[in-house]
Amino acid sequence: MQEALKPVIDFGFKYMRLDIIEATVEQENDRSINLQRKLNFERETELRGQLIYYFLLRER
Predict the structure, then answer these.
(1) Kind plus residue range of the DSSP H or E element containing 12
(2) Does residue 46 carry a pLDDT above 90?
(3) pLDDT for position 50
(4) Average of pLDDT values for 49-57?
(5) DSSP symbols for 14-25
(6) What is the rounded CA–CA span in Å between residue 36 and residue 53?
(7) What is the pLDDT of residue 58?
(8) Domain around 52
(9) If we measure between CA atoms, which residue out of 18, 14, 51 comes closest to residue 36?
(10) pTM of this structure
(11) Which percentage of the chain shows pLDDT scores above 90?
(12) Is 42 left (phi over 0), alpha (psi -120 to 50) or beta?
């Protein structure tokens, strides 16, 4: 999955000119949590509705 998401993230920042990409993960989903960490997503401090929120900012 990591190999598939890297080009999607690059496309979002480069061609769509996104400033931020957000992701939500269920707190029991360890594989997705680890994937967010590997892709350098930052974890939000707030947990809402059994979901963990992550974000990735475009490098400037």
Answers:
(1) helix 2-14
(2) no
(3) 82
(4) 91
(5) HTS--SEEEEEE
(6) 10
(7) 92
(8) 2-57
(9) 51
(10) 0.83
(11) 78
(12) beta
Collapsed DSSP state (helix, strand, coil) of residue 26: strand
Counting the structural domains of the chain, the total is 1
| Residue 5, amino acid | L
Residue 59 confidence (pLDDT): 85
How many Cα atoms occupy the beta-carbon half-sphere of 9 within 13 Å? 20
CATH of the domain at 43: 3.40.630.30
CB 19 within 8 Å of CB 12: no
Q: Within the chain, what is the greatest distance between any pair of CA atoms?
A: 33
What mean pLDDT is predicted for residues 37-49?
87
* DSSP secondary structure of 28-57: T-HHHHHHHHHTTPEEEEEEETTEEEEEEE
- CA torsion 27-32-38-42 (nearest 10°) is -40
